[in-house]
Amino acid sequence: MKQLLTFIMMSVFTLGCSQKTPNVSKTEFSKEALDQKLEDENGKSLTINEILKKHQGKVLVIDFWAGWCRDCLKAMPKAKELEQNNPDIDFVFLSLEQSKEGFDKSLEKHNMKDKENYWFSTGWKNDFNNYIDLNWIPRYMVINQKSSIAKYYAISPEDPEIQKTIDLLLK
Question: What is the DSSP letter of 117?
Answer without folding.
Answer: E
